[in-house]
Amino acid sequence: MRHEFIINKTALKPRRKQLRNRTTHSEKLLWEKLRKKQLGCWFKRQVSISNYVVDFYCPQKRLAIELDGSIHKTPSQKKYDQYRTRYLRAFNITEIRFWNSEVGINIKNVIKTISLHLFRSPPLI
To answer: Is pLDDT larger for residue 75 or for residue 31?
Structure first.
């Protein structure tokens, strides 16, 4: 039996809304570069994929983008993040991560990295 992932589960709508209302400075900076198809693909922010909420998601390319703060340096959070990345990968979703500080210091490099992921070979389905 093949399992499917569910985009934007109704049960997670309050959590997605909460996250959108608590957008970090780094998320705001990156969203200004991703929104309105500026990189050639549509992105949505705070999208749930099954039981996980990703910061940004491009459904066309199956690309999830996460911005990480210092909490992601703890051993338990690292383990959780690794599991989540493997889970998303099982559905052919690529997840790329950036530190919040990377966005603030060198957003051009962040955008370049995202663009490279967007326009590489299409994902296998």
So the answer is: 31
CB atoms inside a 10 Å sphere around CB 90:
10
pTM, whole model, 2 decimals? 0.85
SS (H, E, C) the chain: CCCCCCECCHHHHHHHHHHHHCCCHHHHHHHHHHHHHCCCCCCEEEEEECCEEEEEEECCCCEEEEEECHHHHCHHHHHHHHHHHHHHHHCCCEEEEEEHHHHHHCHHHHHHHHHHHHCCCCCCC
8 Å CB contact between 44 and 10: no
